[in-house]
């Protein structure tokens, strides 16, 4: 187990270097950020040259990248154009998005798995069909539609909640954005659980458990659900990463100053340090989440062992 | 807030599982003011791109703040655009090149420091110096000695500009490198604001919480999320704030800000999203402002490209201009938040300032038959095609470009000869523009820094000017601009600029499309909301009910 974890951690190094380089290269390819600093006016050549020099932009790409990586290993993620350190931005934005993701994942798990179990156990019945139709609808409606509609209904029409999230973004205000963010994945979780349950419900070990006279609740939670969760956990592991990065739309609608917003802003302003800094952390989150998922397999299914 | 309190709490109870802690959302008080001038205005804001300092802020979001916390030598009247002395007692000149500035007694910064001649001279020298990398440094470029502190390459040769001399606490003289009669009227731009010594002593500290001499002081500033400004009680100027303060809240999307306005969480949005323009009359009634600002959108021809720049092509360029149905596009796509252009300036200048509704004449009127004829006479489109370009990340640029192309295609009746080349980001678009890489007409939006006709013409069309991206050059035009700048009488200077503008009508280096309006919407909580020429709300005039 320990050796496996170390091996996985070591594998992350090339992935990390490769992905940061790709991102750096892509942001670099977007064009000259200094020109955009001056709006519709012509940049003054001397000032622009000085800014480029200070931001290391007058060097060839590979030198810029080495310089940037050198700084990262010293804990310096560079500076955004408004004079804020990228580390400050990271410290401000990540907790917010993390909270949002957490709310979304919890909703996804509780509601999704419950619906999946119910419809999986009653395959072909009315409950099952209606859950299937519901999830189909949810999957086909884009996030920004559900976002704007729910925001309008709850925030403006019925005036139940604040339509936007305040800068501190406490959990209470993140519930509606969390639901919006979770909806699509929730549908997938439901369907994955349903299929898995429906398959395993006829497995030998379930029949054995039932034959032994175990209570139904115990059969379902201990024997059936636990063995059916592996595909769901895999999905959620990859989903953590995409939820954090993909929250751009939701964050925009609800005015949440999180990761999505900062990356969007960074891309618009061609600010390489912001974009690369944020995406680098995202990459790490993604890698760690996947590692965690792989380790969870062993917990869920003792047949899986890592050496 | 919305009357149905019972219903609201009932809904709250039902939705308690949804948002237990968020109930009472709409009940935020707005500072508790009741018409006594102590209420707080809650306004939408965007994250400023650069640190907020006078010589470095060149966009409207940071500009808003500077507008509230600084007063310069002159200020533009929000209605007429006329430059009025504010901190300046008088600005004298005999030759349009040497100016003596006298400042009024009694002005102080909010930290107690006096506003003296030195406050201005130090600030301007700071703004001009290359080591400080200020975005607005070029505003000082007509002061003598600018090349010494801001050489085109290499290190600065001097610390200060020789053209600025402090005479005593209240007077300083300015020598320009050449005659420029309208120079005093340019001083309302924020880059010319005075700075307290605190700025130079603790720069990082100042940037965290800027200190100025305007009607507001900054109470707190959280980068990326908001700023609280409060009325400065000891403010000596005539335009003291009529409210208790302004809270600026950062919105990442103007749609969200609009939703919050509807929900009663903020009082003022100064950018009504395009999607909501259809509803705005219903939602806000007369609490919606839509007025021309000092912004014009044009399509510039790359005259550096032989296909577009060669003799005879002016007919084609004029023809293209006449093929665009401006009325229809501004109505259908922009819901009248743009005004069809009739010259190369802006109606916000006013007639006295040089706006000329006949400036472009027939060339800006939609006339498909004449357009077709002119283009044929001029030898047709280069290669039979024209490609229109702009960034498409903001401002409905994609939509109007499609419409312009349709309009041209319909007028010419030769199928899809006009196509659109959308560019993903503004930064990319800018850098390609600056490298003169276009082969067809490209968008250029121009927001004037001060309400002067000079600012609409000289930087854009004078030979070798800083923002002359089409590389237009015309000896007669240059001569007229030079003459205007030497004119000691303002009215005469404006006339000269207008005759220079007439030449643009013949040459058509850029097609004037439309003037951009400033828009704003506000809640029932506030009154007396107005926009100035820069489409920034005049915050100090707003009253809170």
From TrEMBL, chain A:
Q: Which InterPro entries match?
A: BPD_transp_1_N, MetI-like, MetI-like_sf
Keyword Transport among record annotations: yes
**Pfam families (UniProt xref):** BPD_transp_1, BPD_transp_1_N
* GO cellular component term, pick one: plasma membrane
Localisation per UniProt entry:
Cell membrane
Keyword terms: Cell membrane, Membrane, Transmembrane, Transmembrane helix, Transport
Residue span(s) of domain ABC transmembrane type-1:
94-297
SUPFAM superfamilies xrefs: MetI-like (SSF161098)
Q: Which GO terms describe its biological process?
A: transmembrane transport
The domain of life is Bacteria
Note whether Iron occurs among the keywords.
no
Its topology with respect to the membrane?
Answer: Multi-pass membrane protein
Q: Where are the transmembrane segments?
A: 12-31, 98-119, 131-154, 174-192, 224-249, 275-300
Q: Which family does the record claim for this protein? A: Belongs to the binding-protein-dependent transport system permease family.
Q: What is this protein called?
A: ABC transporter permease
From TrEMBL, chain B:
| Compositional bias ranges of the Gly residues kind | 28-38
Q: Any coiled-coil ranges, and where? A: none
| All residue ranges annotated as the Solute-binding protein family domain in the record | 86-467
Q: Disordered: where is this region?
A: 28-58
Signal peptide feature range: 1-22
Query: Please, one GO biological process term?
Result: peptide transport
Offer a single GO CC term for the protein.
Answer: periplasmic space
Please list the GO terms describing molecular function.
peptide transmembrane transporter activity
* InterPro entries assigned to the protein according to its UniProt record, in alphabetical order: Peptide/Ni-bd, SBP_5, SBP_5_dom
The cross-references to CDD domains, in alphabetical order and at most eight, read:
PBP2_NikA_DppA_OppA_like
Signal: present as a keyword of the record? yes
Q: Does the keyword Signal apply?
A: yes
**Tell me, what's a Pfam family for it?**
SBP_bac_5
Keyword terms of this UniProt record: Signal
Q: Which protein are we looking at?
A: ABC transporter substrate-binding protein
